[in-house]
Design a protein that fits this description.
One of its GO terms (molecular function) is transcription cis-regulatory region binding. The protein has 207 residues and is mainly α. It is built from 11 helices and no strands. The chain is elongated.
Length: 207
C-alpha cells in the first residue's frame, strides 16, 4: 500500500470513529456531516471524498462491526455429539459473550437499537446487527428440527417458530442491556438469561 493510500485509509477510519462517537452521543438523525467533520478534525470535503453521503457513511460504520454468529454456530457444531439443546445453549452463550466483550460492537449496536430515529430504523444495513445470516438461520433451525425429532422441543412450537423466538429473545436481552450497561453485569447474568430462554423452548427435566 502506498503512503498516500495509507493516509487515505487512516483518514477514512478517523471519520468512521468520529461518526460512531457522534451518532452514539446525539443520535443519527440529529448528526450532520458538519458535526462529524468537526469531531474528526477534517473538512466536509474530506468526508465526501470517502463517502457519498451520511447514509453511505452509516453503511460503512455498520459493515465495520459484525457479530461473528456464523463462527459461533459452527463452533457449537464441533466436538463430540451432544443434544441439540446443548448446541443451541452454546450458541446463545457465545452471542451474549461477544456482545459483552466487544466494546465496538456494543457502541454500534447501541446506535442501531437506541440512536436510530423513526425513518432510519428501517435501513437495510441494520440487518448486519439485528438479523441472523442465512447460514445461521439454516443451522439453528436444523438444530430445532433435531430437537423436535427427539421429542425435546416444547409443545406448540415448530422449528421455524422456535428459531424465530430464540433469535428475538437474544436480541431483546441485548436491547435491554444496552440501554444502560451499568444496570447489571451481562457476564454475571448471561447463564441465567440463557437458561430461562432454554426452558421456554425445550422440555427440560427438573434439577
Amino acid at each position: 500500500m502506498t503512503r498516500r493510500k495509507e493516509e487515505a485509509e487512516r483518514t477514512r477510519e478517523t471519520i468512521l470513529d468520529a461518526a460512531e462517537a457522534t451518532f452514539l452521543a446525539q443520535g443519527v438523525s440529529r448528526t450532520t456531516l458538519a458535526h462529524i467533520a468537526k469531531a474528526a478534525g477534517v473538512t466536509r470535503g474530506a468526508i465526501y471524498w470517502h463517502f457519498e453521503d451520511k447514509a453511505a457513511l452509516f453503511d460503512a460504520l455498520l459493515e465495520r462491526v459484525r457479530i461473528p454468529i456464523d463462527e459461533i454456530v459452527d463452533l457449537a457444531e464441533q466436538g463430540a455429539p451432544t443434544f441439540p439443546a446443548d448446541r443451541l445453549r452454546q450458541i446463545a452463550l457465545g452471542a451474549l459473550k461477544r456482545m459483552h466483550d466487544d466494546r465496538q460492537l456494543q457502541r454500534v449496536s447501541t446506535i442501531v437499537f437506541h440512536r436510530c430515529e423513526k425513518l432510519e430504523d428501517y435501513h437495510p444495513r441494520i440487518s448486519v446487527i439485528t438479523r441472523l445470516s442465512q447460514h445461521a438461520q439454516t443451522r439453528v433451525e436444523q438444530l430445532f428440527e433435531a430437537a423436535k425429532q427427539q421429542g425435546t422441543l416444547r409443545a406448540g412450537l415448530t422449528p421455524t417458530s422456535a428459531r424465530r423466538q430464540f433469535h428475538m429473545l437474544l436480541i431483546g436481552a441485548c436491547f435491554d442491556w444496552l440501554q444502560d450497561i451499568e444496570q447489571y453485569s451481562l457476564a454475571e447474568e448471561r447463564d441465567a438469561i440463557v437458561e430461562t430462554l432454554m426452558r421456554g423452548l425445550f422440555v427440560i427435566e427438573p434439577d
